[in-house]
Amino acid sequence: MSPSQSSLLLLLLMVSCSWASHFLGGTMTFNPRGTNPDGTYRVDLRYKTAFHSTVCLTDTWSCISGDCGNEISLVVNTVDQGISEDWCQTEGVMTRHVSNNTQTFDLLLDGGNWINNVNSVSAWRLWTHVDLGVRSDTKTINRSPQTTVVPLMRVPANCPRDFNLLSFDPDGDEVRCRYAVPTDECVTSSDLPNDFTLQENCTLSFWGNSSTTGTYAVQIVMEDFPTQTISLSYTDGSQSIRTSNNTLCKLPVQFAVRVDPPVTSCMEGLYLPMFLSPTPAQGALLYASADQPLEITVRAQATQSTVSELLVSGPSSITENTTVPGEYLLRWTPTEDEEGGYYPVCFIAQGVNDSSMYHSELRCLIVRVGNTSAIRTTEEPTTSPPLAINLTTTEEPTTSLL
Ligand SMILES: *[C@@H]1O[C@H](CO)[C@@H](O)[C@H](O)[C@H]1NC(C)=O
Ligand SMILES: *[C@@H]1O[C@H](CO)[C@@H](O)[C@H](O)[C@H]1NC(C)=O
Ligand SMILES: *[C@@H]1O[C@H](CO)[C@@H](O)[C@H](O)[C@H]1NC(C)=O
Ligand SMILES: *[C@@H]1O[C@H](CO)[C@@H](O)[C@H](O)[C@H]1NC(C)=O
Ligand SMILES: *[C@@H]1O[C@H](CO)[C@@H](O)[C@H](O)[C@H]1NC(C)=O
Ligand SMILES: *[C@@H]1O[C@H](CO)[C@@H](O)[C@H](O)[C@H]1NC(C)=O
Ligand SMILES: *[C@@H]1O[C@H](CO)[C@@H](O)[C@H](O)[C@H]1NC(C)=O
Ligand SMILES: *[C@@H]1O[C@H](CO)[C@@H](O)[C@H](O)[C@H]1NC(C)=O
Predict the structure, then answer these.
(1) pTM (2 d.p.)
(2) Which of 142, 238, 361, 365 has the CA that lies 20 to 30 A from 131?
(3) Pocket lining for ligand 4, CB < 6 angstroms
């Protein structure tokens, strides 16, 4: 390749990246995986980022404070491509080894441009705060809430809708959401109009009482709080008290909401697809085992639009198959390395009528991959008698998670 050819290629790459890199949000969760034989701590972090682009892009998180340890491995894969919307969401699974848990740490991923939006958010920033202190209640390191989200969610301007963000906490902590605060957690605040209300329980309500259409960039921080006072202990012997007012970790949850022109009827099942049985309920907890395929059937129906796509955000190895229109089979085979973890899956059914697209509600569930004994060092509440009253907070939530 001649120098002029290669510089032309470089120029083309730069041009295509700069206009293709329209950010559509991201999330991060983490799961401490115990100590390695050399005494270092292993922590697996999973992040998702989405871009308005047919090419899936990857990025590198930087350590902005504390000791983030060493990145031992990073595997990045495509989660889903919103075919009709030209977006692509990728999942990165990052394993880090941290020499000791004395210092909390912060990881940052940032970049140039959000997708064009009404609320004037341009530069983007995903910020994660990790504290590997050992909890006095569970005797293990705190696990983050588990969440994911479909990167671009649509709602007609006249239709009230609750976006119930998944906020499952494996330790049973209280999970709260708030808007990201500049300039650590975001570059500029979301400043959503009054039509949106973010509840502390992570429901973003859209009231459907405005005529303003367009795309909004939503930047949320999800945090977990112990339900009773606990202490965190560190390698150097120090302890830190955490009350129900003190956050344990902070995660970014960012996405876009597109408010479309009003629709004749907001009733589910007409223009807006409606989920039907046997689609799992919102917040359902499903169980899976390593090396065994978990199958989830999702059915969606609409009479005034054609259900044409299921937008899915979950582990990147989840597959989606459809044989009957409006009926989808999600299949996921967790690996042995995923044992003991909780994995979020969210989806939206998309209906089309001419050039208009209609989204169902956001439906989310949690998959628990069995054999937690290998990773959790505390007794399972189901197998050990309730001798220590203080351990009751480690109980697994069973039915309603949200
Ligand atoms: C929409 O309704 C919400 C809740 O009632 C209210 O807070 C908000 O001001 C309303 N917005 C408009 C534009 O009327
Ligand atoms: C913990 O790691 C830091 C480096 O991040 C080191 O300076 C410190 O001495 C270590 N503390 C202990 C107790 O090992
Ligand atoms: C939490 O904060 C509220 C308001 O500041 C205060 O009234 C309450 O006592 C605090 N609770 C604890 C456990 O510190
Ligand atoms: C599209 O909407 C119109 C009414 O707005 C309806 O008559 C037509 O049946 C719809 N098309 C599909 C494919 O549902
Ligand atoms: C989708 O389902 C069909 C029919 O059951 C099957 O032949 C095909 O292999 C499946 N594709 C995937 C990717 O699972
Ligand atoms: C999973 O559990 C089974 C039964 O308790 C046990 O035999 C197996 O070794 C466990 N696997 C791991 C990886 O811990
Ligand atoms: C439970 O917690 C209380 C206060 O935090 C403490 O006094 C008590 O010893 C604990 N009990 C057990 C069984 O750990
Ligand atoms: C969150 O709180 C709001 C208002 O209190 C309530 O309407 C909504 O159902 C709650 N959402 C969840 C998921 O619990």
Answers:
(1) 0.85
(2) 365
(3) 304-306, 353
